[in-house]
Amino acid sequence: MLDLYYWTTPNGHKITIFMEEAQLPYKIIPVNISKGEQFQPDFLKIAPNNRIPALVDHAPADGNGPLSIFESGAILLYLAEKTGRFLPSDVRGRTEVLQWLFWQMAGLGPMAGQNHHFGLYAPEKIPYSIDRYVKETNRLYGVLNRRLADREFIAGAEYSIADMAAYPWIVPWKRQQQNIDDFPHLKRWFEAVLGRPAVGRAYRLAEEINIAPTVTEASRALLFGQSASQTGC
């Protein structure tokens, strides 16, 4: 059994998409980040960065007891290697997938996340910050659009963990002040992933778990106002 510590964010969606695609048996343990549940001591033992998602595999390949993994990219890689799915075994195919997985982790996710923060959640609307991250998100959409001009999926002909990682960060394109019609190759890929039954199941599951996805003043402090001293570091 796999225990998935999860909330309904783009990084959380990556893992439920994989679970549904691979039809793995798993149990969701909700971690409501708006209520500060990510800072509970028991969760910190599993996820030392106090962030979701996190995974506990109760039957890892080495047979040495439960194994915990944090960071969504690391979890995707772990699950791909565990199941032998969505990650090519040849060196070139594997490299293609991993470099685009890391591109999402280091680029698309953080930049789109800052776009969300300054455009939607920051108490003070700072034009420079909003403009900077909207433009950088736009640039990254362009990178992905060019990449998809001559291939079906991000790493080539086969759907992979690179697609699972990037897709949830494109879903909120309107919130990111982007026009998906400006990126025809990305839009074609986006609609193809959207149409996958497993992706639909993953997002319907999110709707059942988080029925009130709002940010209040209290949750804003928990989500955006933590320092090392406040998290016990």
From TrEMBL:
Residues 1-87 form the GST N-terminal domain. GO terms for molecular function: transferase activity. Residues 90-214 form the GST C-terminal domain. Keywords: Transferase. The keyword DNA repair does not apply. PROSITE patterns: GST_CTER (PS50405), GST_NTER (PS50404). Pfam families: GST_C, GST_N. The keyword Transferase applies. InterPro entries: Glutathione-S-Trfase_C-like, Glutathione-S-Trfase_C_sf, Glutathione_S-Trfase, Glutathione_S-Trfase_N, GST_C, Thioredoxin-like_sf. Belongs to the GST superfamily. This is Glutathione S-transferase.
